[in-house]
Write a structure and sequence with these properties.
The chain contains five helices and no strands. The chain is mostly helical.
Length: about 140
Amino acid sequence: MTSVILSTATRYMLPLLLLFSVFLLLRGHSEPGGGFVGGLVAAASFAFYAFAYNVKQARRALRINPRVFIGVGLLIAVSSATYSLFLGKSFMTGIWTETEFPVFGAIGTPFIFDVGVYLVVLGVILTIVFSLAEGEQ
């Protein structure tokens, strides 16, 4: 059964929730938030979309298979964690850039690790939700 209220609200809430998830990701290294919470919010936005419409349309809105997010996220997280080993430092030692960016400041490996966690959480949660929703249909 399709709900007009849910589908209309989801259409407006999807971009807002995705923007909020990016906000949580960006503030995560200095305040509460980060890759895990941001990934959960992003996955919840697409889960709402799948509930309001169907999984096929949610996959079309996502445009990328959620399993790709898992692989890319793991690659980013492991790369950022092992980067310090190539510089002769301990595993997962934070390394920051010399240049300051206008909004972000100095970008470091902890932020890059958070981006990897964000993508892994997004991919895992969406894989689970989409699989359960497809099995129900």
